[in-house]
Design goal:
The chain has about 300 residues and is α+β, with helices and mostly antiparallel strands. It has helices at about 5-15, 35-40, 90-100, 160-170, 185-205, 205-225, 255-275, 280-305, and strands spanning about 20, 50-55, 75-80, 110, 115, 120-130, 135-145, 150-160, 180, 185. The protein contains eight helices and ten strands. Strand 7 and strand 8 form a beta hairpin.
């Protein structure tokens, strides 16, 4: 089964269990749990079920397309269920059976592994799911997000699509996987891996990246003060459709703020790949992003926690 078929099978399976299937988010992230759908969706008490694919970028993981298992760009299928069904572990195993990965034919194990994201101020407990000794899914009961203790908790299922495909296609290199029946991943992505590795490790200007980081921090903070004062608003005659009188205009812009925080997290990863920060500087930048993300969570809950 190629990667395209795996995605379609997971879409169909989780749609059957009531998940909304949403498009991927467009801001760079390093994991499916950073998506706004997971971050905001786990907050509050409203039941929530969602499934989506993510293309994750981790600058420091690039190897110029030469390493069989280390990629700058990798793909995940993320499921978030709030509250978790009582039989969620069996449902998850059923999703593997739907892919043709039956526990009767494969060695499927659960290795205890808790999850922590310092940038998200998030944590949870759960397992790394192994198929014949290789990790294919992170199975996590999400207990904290944006510094908020979650009630109820959510369950997050993060399928590593390359890992699943490697098991199903019998490949030892991610570059040899097939995206569809005619397109090997080597042809689709190797040159991008080479070029982005060169950029991330050699070419990216640390001065300019730092400036972009600072600007994104400022924009994020500005979004989180929007609606509380009007001194910086554009004049009415410069807004093509006029300004709405909706009372929600008085709330902060936590969705755009979160996007800017995600950009900051990606730029921090890029600076890390360039080895441009000391451990102390990296910790300080991480704290700065985390505090903004915590404010995004607080503002979302203050607004009422809708439309994640």
């Amino acid at each position: 089964m190629d990667l395209y078929d795996i995605i379609l099978h997971l879409h169909g399976f989780w749609r059957h269990y009531g998940c909304q299937l949403i498009p991927p988010h467009t801001v760079e992230t390093g994991a499916g749990t950073l998506s706004p759908a997971a971050f905001f969706g786990t907050l509050g008490s409203v039941p929530y079920r969602v499934g989506y694919i993510t293309s994750n970028q981790r600058p420091a993981d690039g190897r110029y397309g030469k390493d069989p298992l280390r990629l700058r760009l990798h793909h995940q299928y993320q499921v978030v269920l709030k509250p978790p069904p009582a039989e969620i572990q069996e449902i998850y195993l059923s999703s593997l059976r739907d892919l043709g990965l039956s526990p009767a034919d494969y060695d499927i194990g659960f290795s205890a592994e808790d999850w922590v994201s310092p940038v998200l101020a998030a944590s949870g407990v759960g397992w790394q799911v192994l198929l014949n000794g290789m990790p294919i899914t992170r199975f996590t009961y999400l207990q904290q997000m944006g510094g908020v203790e979650l009630a109820p908790v959510s369950v997050g299922l993060t399928y590593g699509l390359e890992g699943v495909a490697s098991a199903m296609q019998g490949k030892e290199s991610d570059h040899d996987l097939f995206w569809d029946d005619a397109s090997p991943c080597r042809e689709l992505g190797n040159e991008k891996e080479r070029q982005f590795s060169a950029y991330n490790f050699e070419r990216a200007s640390t001065d300019r990246v730092l400036k972009m980081f600072e600007l994104s921090i400022e924009e994020c903070g500005d979004c989180l003060t929007a609606g509380r004062d009007s001194q910086d608003r554009a004049p009415q005659d410069r807004i093509p459709w006029g300004r709405s009188s909706d009372s929600r205009n008085n709330c902060t812009l936590f969705f755009p703020a979160y996007d800017h925080a995600l950009r900051c997290a990606h730029l921090l990863d890029l600076l890390d790949a360039r080895d441009a920060l000391s451990p102390g500087e990296k910790a300080g930048f991480t704290t700065c992003i985390r505090e903004l993300i915590e404010r995004c969570a607080q503002e979302y809950l203050r607004f009422g926690g809708q439309d994640a």
